[in-house]
């Protein structure tokens, strides 16, 4: 049976390329790029209702951008904010821009709730009625006769006790100042006007993100030229910067890898055919990875493309081994070359896929996507080398002495010999290097390390959070109850427990639905408080007469109060009049439970908050901490996975090569991984879950190098076989370092550490691999 059929395999490869071309046309017509930071993160390991609460809570912040325009006075600040709003509106990026408070909505809400004014009391009024009802009336008189009394005088005719005015004022928990129709915030010698923008969609396309970033920078410069200052924050801005940084790194890493590979291959082979074929293998790998990934996932994240651009330095390895190891054979033919390199590159592909399978077990969608993209690219490049190269090289007769072959031969003979000569000192120094570095290694599992932002954006975010009582987007309480009454009791119990924390300055503010809507039981209780307190006929009459009301007005107020005794404001009716933020906090009722979110602002001491989860129906949600805990657990699991993969590969090596040779070959990847970890320790680099996945890739590359040197040592013939293997491994190492190693130049700390791990691991594997078979080779000489 004839297995070697280059024409048939080349035809099948061409059919595959036609299918890829058709897929490319289809994919170019769709929205395939994901840029949002949260898409990299997994759903926390928790109950579905908690995951739903996190998603609902995130919806309130994922599309919002907040600006504070600062000037010497409120008028100038509002004018600057209006200028900013005009330019933002002209950009077409935002579905809604809010500067002036919508008075129509304010009046409509007032009118909807006013008829229930005797059932709605704020917490301070309720407390006053419980302890000293007459003191409440005296406070009203003092307020009305003070300079601020004119502001309340207009409400007296319909609300003589100012009860509803107190309640309605409490609906604005932030207690923000309103001037010139806008929210203004005093800040030392400056006053800042608040502008809030909301995007139409949480997922902006790349061009829109670039526009948002450049527009924000332009607006800051414009406001600065007019003598003001513009602060901005919001998740879309962080996403826009991350996308901009990723674009820059894709071009830097991709172009750097490509130019480096082209330069190395040109210098080595001095022939266009090997260079063009290597470029073809790279292009096919990247094209197949992009198209086939989009068959399995709806969108590719931009960070996947950052890692994908570094794939250039890895997919070229198969072609390099074909040219260097295969063409080093006497009387070379494509068939003989493929027969020699096929076991090595097949084993290399297997170990690569095992490494990427480790990434595939990650709970992080971003990592699984990167693993899928890389694995598909490697398989496509491998198939290109195996199926197409023998056909295209059928009449290729190269010269065996490549330009760098003699240099590679000299290095592979002199390097192991020198190491052998000083082995005692080098082994002691190497052991010291490993022990010292590993002892300084510290794991860091903070999920926020995934995202890096420039100083000006993080500083502006911190300043806005200082000026506005904006809560952390990832920390809140989820309150549940079997029914509406049970939920109300549970949330009120939580709010009562939070109140002392605000008095102790451990928490600046908290807010829940039950802070504003009393349940029917509470509404009846509040009505009775009024009935037995300030609405006693003698007390009310004396109070209203002092204010100048006629007897008919007093009688009318008493009649209105009596007529309202049976009224009850339902939660649905209250929600219809509530502001959007409060509506967002109510999660609704289903057959299982009723649920809501209690938001927090200005957390100064986090320690007491998780303990409140012991209250009935209360769950403390800290999304970042939960994801960081998830990082830690999976780092521990992946450590076990890494040990398991190493054991599996060692078992395969021992089965194929024997106990002694198998252990010798496996010592290269093990030492390379330990060296990479020690390097992280010595240089104080981050050590996270991602570094372990980098070690899986180091394992794959180092096994490749060691296996090829073992094959060269076992080959019958001369030292030339080790020379060509050294050349192939050297080119492979340099191209890999140009690919994944360039990730070390990333501005994102976690990507940078990933690149450092790979650079140290691959570099040490390149230095250690020539030691395989060195003694055997010396004995032959």
From TrEMBL:
InterPro entries in the record: MMPL_dom, Mycobact_MmpL
Keyword Cell membrane appears in the UniProt entry: yes
Main location: membrane
Taxonomic source organism: Methylomonas aurea
Gene3D superfamilies: Multidrug efflux transporter AcrB transmembrane domain
Entry's transmembrane regions: 250-268, 275-296, 302-320, 340-359, 371-394, 638-655, 662-683, 689-713, 725-743, 749-774
Subcellular location: Cell membrane
Keywords of the record: Cell membrane, Membrane, Transmembrane, Transmembrane helix
Membrane transport protein MMPL domain mapped to chain residues: 179-395
Name used for this protein in its record: MMPL family transporter
Record membrane topology: Multi-pass membrane protein
Pfam families given in the database record: MMPL (PF03176)
Highest taxon in the source lineage: Bacteria
């Amino acid at each position: 049976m004839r297995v070697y059929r280059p024409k048939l395999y080349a035809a099948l490869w061409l059919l595959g390329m036609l299918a890829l071309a058709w897929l490319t046309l289809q994919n170019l017509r769709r929205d395939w790029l994901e840029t949002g930071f949260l898409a990299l993160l997994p759903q926390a390991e928790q109950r579905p209702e908690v995951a739903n609460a996190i998603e609902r809570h995130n919806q309130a912040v994922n599309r919002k951008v907040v600006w504070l325009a600062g000037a010497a006075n409120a008028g100038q600040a509002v004018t600057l904010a209006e200028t900013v709003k005009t330019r933002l509106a002209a950009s077409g990026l935002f579905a809604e821009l809010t500067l002036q408070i919508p008075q129509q909505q304010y009046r409509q809400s007032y009118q909807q709730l006013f008829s229930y004014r005797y059932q709605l009391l704020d917490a301070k009024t309720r407390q006053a009625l419980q302890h000293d009802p007459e003191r409440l009336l005296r406070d009203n008189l003092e307020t009305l006769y003070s300079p601020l009394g004119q502001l309340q005088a207009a409400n007296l005719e319909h609300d003589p006790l100012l009860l509803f005015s107190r309640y309605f004022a409490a609906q604005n928990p932030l207690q923000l100042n309103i001037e010139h129709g806008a929210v203004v915030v005093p800040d030392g010698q400056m006053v800042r006007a608040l502008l809030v923008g909301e995007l139409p969609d949480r997922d902006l396309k790349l061009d829109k993100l670039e526009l948002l970033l450049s527009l924000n920078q332009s607006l800051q410069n414009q406001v600065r030229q007019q003598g003001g200052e513009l602060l901005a924050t919001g998740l879309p801005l962080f996403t826009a910067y991350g996308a901009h940084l990723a674009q820059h790194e894709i071009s830097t890493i991709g172009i750097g890898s490509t130019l480096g590979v082209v330069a190395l291959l040109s210098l080595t082979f001095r022939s266009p055919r090997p260079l063009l074929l290597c470029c073809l293998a790279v292009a096919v790998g990247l094209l197949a990875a992009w198209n086939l990934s989009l068959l399995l996932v709806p969108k590719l994240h931009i960070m996947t493309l950052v890692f994908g651009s570094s794939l250039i330095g890895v997919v070229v390895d198969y072609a390099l081994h074909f040219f260097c190891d295969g063409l080093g054979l006497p009387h070379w033919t494509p068939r003989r070359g493929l027969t020699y390199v096929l076991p090595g590159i097949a084993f290399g592909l297997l170990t690569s896929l095992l490494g990427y399978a480790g990434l595939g077990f990650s709970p992080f969608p971003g990592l699984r996507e990167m693993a899928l993209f890389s694995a598909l690219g490697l398989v496509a490049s491998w198939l290109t080398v195996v199926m197409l190269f023998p056909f295209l090289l059928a009449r290729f007769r190269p010269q065996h002495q490549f330009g760098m072959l003699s240099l590679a031969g000299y290095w592979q003979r002199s390097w192991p010999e020198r190491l052998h000569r000083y082995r005692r000192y080098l082994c002691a120094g190497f052991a010291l290097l490993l022990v010292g570095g590993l002892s300084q290694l510290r794991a860091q599992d903070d999920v926020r390390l995934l995202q890096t932002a420039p100083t000006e954006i993080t500083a502006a975010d911190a300043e806005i959070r200082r000026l506005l009582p904006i809560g952390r987007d990832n920390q809140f309480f989820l309150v549940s109850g079997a029914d509406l009454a049970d939920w109300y009791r549970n949330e009120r119990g939580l709010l009562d427990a939070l109140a002392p924390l605000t008095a102790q300055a451990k928490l600046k503010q908290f807010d829940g639905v039950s802070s504003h809507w009393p349940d029917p039981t509470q509404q009846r209780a509040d009505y009775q408080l009024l009935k037995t307190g300030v609405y006693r006929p003698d007390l009310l009459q004396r109070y209203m007469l002092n204010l100048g009301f006629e007897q008919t007005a007093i009688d009318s107020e008493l009649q209105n109060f009596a007529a309202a005794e049976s009224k009850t404001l339902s939660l649905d009716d209250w929600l219809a009049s509530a502001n959007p933020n409060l509506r967002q906090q109510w999660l609704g009722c289903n057959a299982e439970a009723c649920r809501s979110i209690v938001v927090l602002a200005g957390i100064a001491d986090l320690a007491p908050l998780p303990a409140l989860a012991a209250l009935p129906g209360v769950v403390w949600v800290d999304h970042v901490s939960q994801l960081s805990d998830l990082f830690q657990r999976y780092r521990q699991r992946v450590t076990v996975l890494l040990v398991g993969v190493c054991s599996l590969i060692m078992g395969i090596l021992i089965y194929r090569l024997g106990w002694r040779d198998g252990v010798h070959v496996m010592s290269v990847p093990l030492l390379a991984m330990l060296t990479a970890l020690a390097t992280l320790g010595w240089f104080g680099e981050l050590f996270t879950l991602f570094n372990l996945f980098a070690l899986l890739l180091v394992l794959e590359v180092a096994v490749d190098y060691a296996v090829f040197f073992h094959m060269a040592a076992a080959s019958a013939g001369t030292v030339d076989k080790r020379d060509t293997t050294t050349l192939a491994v050297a080119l492979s190492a340099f191209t890999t370092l140009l690919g994944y190693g360039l990730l070390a130049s990333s501005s994102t700390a976690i990507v940078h550490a990933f690149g450092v791990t790979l650079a140290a691991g691959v570099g040490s594997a390149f230095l250690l691999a020539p030691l395989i078979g060195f003694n055997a080779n010396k004995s032959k000489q």
